[in-house]
Amino acid sequence: MAEEKGMVIELKGITKRYGAVTAVEDLSFTLDGAGVYGLLGPNGAGKTTTMNILTGILAPTEGRVLCDGLDLLEEPLSVKRRMGYLPEQPPVYPELTPREYLSFVADARGCDRGRRAAVVSHALAAAGVEKVADRLTGQLSKGYRQRLGIAMALVGDPELIVLDEPTAGLDPLQIGEVRTLIRELGEHHIVLLSSHILPEIRVVADRVLILSHGKLVADEATETLTQRTESGVVHLLTVRAGERELRKALAGLKGVRSLRLERGERPGTLDAELRAKDDVTEAVSAALMDARIPVTRLETRERDLEEVFRGLTEEENNDGDL
Amino acid sequence: MTAIYKRELISHYGTMLGWAAGAVLLGFEGLFLWYVNFTGGYAQLHYSLSYLAMVLLPVVPAITMQSFAGEKRQKTDLLLSSLPLSAYDVVLGKFLAALTVVLLPELVMGVYPLLLSGVGPIPVLSWFGGLTGFFFLAAAAAALGLWISSLVENPALAAALSLGALLLLYFLEPLALYLPTGAGATLAFFLLLGLLLGLAAWYFSRSRLLTGITVILSWLAVLLVYFFRQEAFQGLLPRLMGALSPFSRYAGSFMVGLFDWGTLIYDLSFAALFLHLTRENLEKRRWNA
User: How far is CA B5 from the centre of its chain?
Assistant: First the structure.
């Protein structure tokens, strides 16, 4: 992780309640120095609330956000001057052209008149919206509006750039371009990126923070997380066999991490969930044939994000067992 | 604040709303001048402004309805909250931009005495006094419109509610004629007002002690006045309603050729109160949204 900008953001014991509903609970993490930080979690996990608190849009019910030791609630303007935030829905004005819009944002971020045109041009170029800079924003496609939102977050070269689902609504080519841009930004800025798509975070983030039900369940380098979650293939089988017989048949398979058995719906059958590092469908078929075990179902699927979250949450709850 | 002000102006004049508001004010003022001064034969141009005050009823909600409700609807309120701008910057920027939309046609109206000087002698000072009073009246109405826009998410609803509130203020004095004039009714009204003050104290402080003190002190003050100066309560309610309406104050001063500082200060206080309440609304959303 590059260390060119020394900004440090600390979230300390952040809790946000809406009446009886707790959106995030006792959240603490630190963004220390330049790099791309991925905030990952299923919908409703509290990602947007966390980002809104981090950018001073929402005040936490409990806890503090510190930026280089300055409390965001006590010094909101000086802290916000160093941030750029793209919310989930790009906050653009349809009656303004992208150039007018970015000029407004530059003005609001305290950029003086002499420098404003250059700052706007830089942001337009970085997000690839130069071509439509003088068209009305209301006439732009969803993709261009999303890119304009990214340009807005970059205006004035803020040290912290917070992007909530920045690739939503973009075509695959644009997604690739935005990911490249994020990686480039991460070399000199703190970029906090939220997504519910694990592969996206894997591709761009140096560090991953995982939220589940408003709680931080993982905070680790992307590489470490990848090792923990990537090799996830699940085989679901239904066989006509006894438990001991099945375990014996599958005992010799390489790469099997766990085997969970349940009594099947039909009498005399077993449902099995076999987790392996790689796809072992062929080896499983061969082993069952060798053991003359009739198979009525054999499905294979990748571990999906929900499963990863469930796994991490379970680990969090049972960390004594790890 | 200047960033918000400029952006609002681009929005007002980019969507033609600002031009339309200016055209409506100038068009109606022309019509009233023709009706009152040319047909009626009066030299006092400011008489026509009393009719123009009525045109503010639809024009002000049209200008202010998008101010906050529109931002919430298109989610740009998140942008404003994330920028290094205080809530006062946002509120004042929007307020001054709304006032500019009224000021520009007023500047055009400022040259009317010059244009009409050939027709005969025109009392210029009362005309400029009338325009000043009109500007302050628009300021009070715009602040109320901004506050209502900050309460809802639908700009059309904001416009309808603002129109309703301004209509109520416009007709407050005539409506007050239907209120009872007896001292007992006035006493009941003020006791109710004391209760409302208590509710306001509870809303802002959540303190039972402060709420209780507010209610008891206001009731005590009202009862003391009632028992020692009961005659002061006679007919007070209709008089008070007239004094509370910026439209009635304007009609009773600038429209009869009086330059009334009291009305200007009242309009400014009215505007300051609603701008402050708007700011409170924005801040409250940060805690409760």
Answer: 19
User: Cβ of B84 and A81 within 8 Å?
Assistant: yes
Measure the CA–CA gap between A146 and A92, rounded to whole angstroms: 9
Dihedral pair phi/psi, residue A140, rounded to 5°: -85, 155
Whether B216 and chain A come into contact, CB under 8 Å, resolves to no
Q: Is B154 on the interface with A (CB under 8 A)?
A: no
Pull the structure tokens for residue A193. 């990126």
Contact between chains at B79 and A18 (C-beta distance less than 8 A) = no
Share of chain B above pLDDT 70, in %: 99
Using CA coordinates, name the residue in chain B closest to A58: B286
Residue A13 — φ and ψ, nearest 5°? 55, 40
The helix-helix angle for B47-73 and B17-32 (nearest 10°) equals 160
Radius of gyration of chain A (CA): 24
B261-288 and B124-151 helices cross at what angle (nearest 10)?
A: 20
**What is the token pair recorded at B277?**
């309440």
Q: Which residue has the tokens 């140096």?
A: A206
User: Could you give the C-alpha distances from A318 to A42, A311, A314, A321, A322, in angstroms and in order?
Assistant: 21, 10, 6, 6, 7
Across A54-68, A288-302, B113-127, the highest mean pLDDT is recorded for: A54-68
Shortest Cα distance from A210 to chain B (angstroms)? 24
Tell me the residue ranges of DSSP E strands in chain A.
8-18, 21-32, 35-40, 62-67, 70-71, 83-86, 160-164, 190-195, 207-212, 215-221, 233-239, 256-263, 270-276, 295-302
Report residue A232's pLDDT band, with 50, 70 and 90 as the boundaries.
low
Contact criterion met (CB < 8 Å) for B78 and A94: no
Phi, psi of A300 (to 5 degrees): -130, 130
Rounded Cα gap, residues B198 and B214, in angstroms: 5
Asked if B74 and A104 come within 8 Å (Cβ–Cβ), the reply is no
Show which residues on chain A lie within 8 Å of chain B, measured between beta carbons: 18, 52, 55-59, 76-78, 80-81, 83, 85, 87, 89, 91-96, 100, 104-105, 107-110, 152
The pLDDT tens digits of the residues spanning A112-140 come to 888 899 999 999 998 888 899 999 999 98
pLDDT of A1 strictly over 50: no
ipTM: 0.79
Helix H or strand E segment including A181: helix A172-185
Q: Among B15, B83, B282, which would you mutate to test the A interface (most chain A Cβ atoms within 10 Å of its Cβ)?
A: B83
Per-residue pLDDT for A228 more than 70?
Answer: no
- Note the residue count of chain A: 322
Nearest to B11 among A57, A87, A95 (CB): A95
CB within 8 Å of B111: residues ≥ 6 apart: none
Question: Which residues contact residue B230 at a Cβ distance below 8 angstroms, ignoring those fewer than 6 apart?
Answer: B183
Name the residue type at position B279: R
Q: Which residue of A has its CA nearest to B16?
A: A95
Strand ranges inside B224-277, DSSP E: none
| Interchain proximity A55–B15, CB inside 8 Å | no
Could you read off the pLDDT of A43-101 as tens digits, one per residue? 788 889 999 999 999 999 999 999 888 898 888 888 898 899 999 889 999 989 999 99
Q: What is residue A314's predicted lDDT score, i.e. its pLDDT?
A: 55
Q: Provide the pLDDT confidence category of residue B44 given band limits of 50, 70 and 90.
A: confident
